[in-house]
Write a structure and sequence with these properties.
The complex is a heterodimer.
Chain A (H helix, E strand, L loop, with lengths): L1 E4 L20 E6 L3 E7 L5 H11 L5 E5 L2 E9 L17 E17 L5 E10 L5 E6 L5 E2 L4 E7 L4 E7 L4 E7 L3
Antiparallel strand pairs in A: 3-10, 4-6, 4-10, 5-6, 5-8, 5-9, 6-7, 7-8, 11-12
Chain B lengths: L19 E11 L5 H12 L4 E10 L2 E4 L5 E4 L4 E12 L5 E10 L5 E5 L7 E14 H5 L1
Antiparallel strand pairs in B: 1-8, 2-5, 2-8, 3-4, 5-6, 6-7
The chains are: A mainly beta, B mainly beta.
């Protein structure tokens, strides 16, 4: 839902989260330079496999990526409504089947999950099979690259790594930067 | 031509190109209720970046506020509103204060999309926001 408002003071809304407030509001790390890679996501593979495996082969396990436009044979995405269980303030919906789709633009972060396996967190805008444009959290394991490879600009993160860790404040696991283990 | 008719020509140099190079790369996780735009600016303060380009970013907002040409703004209600595309840069003036200009596409809880510039101070993060910045070092600043 959207509405257009005239300029003026409208207080932005905050939310009270389930867990204890963390005093650290911005967790950042840097490295002296970035390593850039052009990656082609291969037809018929899942977004997850097409991103993770070629990068793992060249030693990249933490990265920020820009996915340029391209067709998906099949794509699934989630939206993020309030969590009715109260476990967290929001929860991802069940996957929505977008069918054969065109990804207009996407960003994906590559890191490690809590078990040390590769994790892909991807948000994108997508023209879905019925022709409408939608956006959300892409399900990388269930989204299959179409007949033409998709170009991706990868900024590999070096000197630190991205790992999923349980976040007390929001009560969900989230990607955060850590010194390399 | 009389003195009264003399026209003073003032030459103003308009800078349309800036040579430079990329420097450091930083990644941050911005916590809930922090503003997206000011969060990116604070990240630059924390990392000592004067100028930077957004290399990637994704996350969620409580509600999104996108500026319109006539000074009004479009509010997209969440929670959560997901940021599905983002581009932008950060520039610092003579006072050294970083100012982020960010624009993007957001999706509401039905997946409907909206786009525009993110208004500073009016885009509180919902669960998390991940952002990667690449430092931009203008040639002029490096020579100074």
């Amino acid at each position: 839902m959207s509405r257009t408002l005239q300029s003026g003071y409208h207080r932005p809304r905050m939310l009270r989260h389930v867990g204890r407030f963390s005093p650290v509001r911005i967790q950042s790390m840097h490295y002296q330079s970035g390593r850039h890679i052009r990656l082609l996501l291969q037809p018929g593979r899942s977004l997850y496999d097409a991103l993770v495996e070629p990068l793992r082969e060249i030693g990249v396990t933490s990265a920020s990526t820009t996915i340029l436009g391209g067709y998906f044979e099949h794509l699934e995405y989630c939206v993020a409504p309030p969590d009715p269980s109260g476990n967290a303030v929001i929860a991802y919906s069940k996957p929505i089947d977008a069918g054969a789709s065109f990804m207009v633009f996407g960003n994906a972060t590559l890191g490690k999950d809590m078990e040390g396996r590769p994790l892909v967190h991807c948000h994108a805008s997508v023209r879905v099979e019925d022709g409408s444009v939608k956006g959300g959290h892409i399900v990388p394991q269930a989204s299959i690259i179409g007949a033409t490879p998709l170009s991706v600009l990868v900024t590999a993160l070096e000197g630190f790594e991205l790992r999923q860790a349980f976040d007390d404040e929001t009560n969900i696991p989230l990607l955060k930067p850590f010194k390399e283990s | 031509m009389s003195t009264a008719e003399t026209t003073q020509v003032v030459t103003t140099r308009v800078v349309t190109t800036e040579s430079g190079r990329m420097g450091r790369v930083a990644y941050a996780r911005i916590a809930p209720n922090e503003d997206l735009v000011q969060g990116v600016e604070k990240m630059c303060l924390a990392e000592g970046f004067r100028n930077a380009f957004v290399r990637g970013g994704l996350g969620s907002l409580v509600d999104a506020s996108l500026g319109c040409r006539d000074g009004s703004y479009q509010q997209i209600s969440g929670p959560a509103v997901e940021v599905v595309s983002i581009a932008g840069e950060v520039r610092s003036g003579a006072d050294g204060v970083p100012v982020a200009s960010l624009a993007g596409i957001v999706a509401d809880t039905d997946g409907n999309v909206y786009g525009g510039p993110f208004l500073a101070g009016w885009n509180p993060v919902c669960m998390t926001f991940e952002v990667t910045l690449e430092e931009w070092i203008p040639e002029d600043e490096e020579l100074a």
